[in-house]
Amino acid sequence: MICCINPNCEKPDNPDGQTYCISCGVKLVPILRWRYRTIKLLGQGGFGRTYLAEDIDRLNQRCVVKQLAPNVQGTWAINKAVELFQQEARQLQQLGQHPQIPSLDACFEEENYLYLVQQFVDGDNLLTLFQNQGIWQESQVKQLLLELLPVLKFIHEQKIIHRDIKPENIMRRRSDGLLMLIDFGVSKQLSGTVMSKPGTRIGTPGYVPLEQMQGGEAYPASDLFSLGATAFHLLTGVHPDGLWTEHGYSWTANWQKHLKNPIDKELALILSKLLAKDIRPRYQSAEEVLRDFQRQSTPNFIHTLKRFDFDTVTVDVRGNITNRQQRQSQFFRENLGSGAILDMVAIPGDRFVMGSPSTEAGRSNNEGPQRTVNISPFFMGKYPITQEQWEVVMGNNPSEIKGLKRPVEQVSWNNALEFCQKISQKTDKIYRLPSEAEWEYASRAGTTTPFYFGETITPDLVNYDGNNPYGSAPKGLYRKQTTDVGSFPPNAFGLYEMHGNVWEWCSDRWHDNYNGAPTDGSSWETGRDNNRVQRGGSWNGNAVVCRGARRYCVSADLRCWGRGFRVAVASVSSSS
Known about the structure:
The longest helix has 21 residues, at 75-95. This protein has 12 helices and 19 strands. The protein is an alpha+beta fold. 25% of the residues lie in helices and 21% in strands.
């Protein structure tokens, strides 16, 4: 039954044949859609009720069911509540499968009620954790920002504004400690003056910025204010609602006087800019905030850059080596613990032509039209992430073909994103997946041929299915498995296995061609498609799919053999 889950409630049959709860007077509803069985009431507010439920079709997997039952009066208010409820469903559908946003499982109407079914997050919201554990340390607040800013960047790129960020709407998942952003699109303040007329504010006083409070207007910078107010609350123990009630928005100018202990100057500057009363001097995007964090962490590894020597080779149309050249690149080394290290190679900024020419053999239409892209300097993993690195950071090994020095595989895009979050927390740097433009630029390393070796490849240079060569190259060895990273010659930047071994995830959403794609090297995040981009080919692929321009479309939540990734991090030049 969806209503009245209190075992003490009486449930007599009424003469009309319907069953009602004496305690709440609401009609009892059977299992929703013959699928969702409610377990207990999680919460009740102005918009309706939220239940913990079981999905019978998924072996009783737990989920959250939201029932819209707005406690408001008047046609406009009720219609507004329905609009916001449906808006949340549309937004969750648009956001797709993101590891830090509860996914939408269903949205439907039954017995004159609207229902929304979401992924269940087993954990506690930050207000509960704060009440149990007390004031947060500076390092905890920094990590909060570093974990949530990429999520805000993601949703803002989808033209979605959360509008109600606060500790109660951020949960820490119990299984792995990952922060989850919840409650999209539905304000819990659907009663009283808040819902009295169009254009009034939505959100929670103290956490809501001035522009949102005055007229309901919200922008990416509005969510950033709310995130700053959340960080302030956790760092000081002072509830911003009370400060707002007593002092209005003047409290934001003097927020530091509430600190119990001094904090890092750079963090204080970031929080001050997040909490700017007026929108113009405030951060305008999550990416701006991340850049400022990157500026702070960059000196920690720039001064430790080392150099390494390597040899590159060039081949003719038959795959015969015609030239060898010694090169040198810079890198920094990350110690992940338990003997695992991560080498990040400095990739210089430049312009390059992305995509393949119409004359390239094996070309697909999605590899064009060719266009010039500007790439800022950044760092990229010398190798794909290995099973050893994955185990140290994630505590497991999903790979089918085992080997500590082999690339981790059977990793979804969501899994890769979670790895980036955890290694960022571990190292205090902002690790991410490379954009598709960054990946192709790094793979080409200044070349314009199908492969960075030249016009073709051989199994001596790349791990692929040698039974299916490219161009004029002869058939060769098919290993039928991954190989240790670093087993084959690198490109001119010092990156290994950018062709073959495992497909590598990029951050971008999939698009069928490059029409409208950004030209600044950033990730292309517009659109509703939940598919993401993979590059590079794999050990069981033909030579043609290992080309530098080849693109592959894969669902973000799909785990399958041959799928891995490497990580990137911004450099000081791209942050300034």
